[in-house]
Structures are given as C-alpha cells and as structure tokens.
Design brief:
Ribosomal_bTHX/bTHXc/bTHXm, 44 residues, ribonucleoprotein, mainly alpha, rod-shaped
C-alpha cells in the first residue's frame, strides 16, 4: 500500500488521477460574483 496502489490517496496523487479517495475540489463562486456591483444604490 503506497505510491503504486491505485486505491489509496497516495497512489492517486502519484498517478495524477481522481476518485473516491481523492475527489476533485470544486471552486466556490467568489463573493464578488455573488454581489452584483451594477445594482448598487445610486447616490443623489
């Protein structure tokens, strides 16, 4: 169980693949995208 093992996290890192042991980290939408700058209150 190590770098050559397909089923371990270390083996997935070594091969550069993803799976149940090493899922992809999904990018969260940034705060800037959530708050729409164009819809700000207009200053009079």
């Amino acid at each position: 169980m190590g770098k050559g093992d397909k089923k371990t996290k270390r083996g997935k890192i070594n091969r550069g693949t993803f799976g149940a042991r090493r899922p992809r980290i999904k990018k969260r939408p940034s705060i800037e995208n959530k708050l729409d700058i164009s819809k700000k209150a207009k200053i009079k």
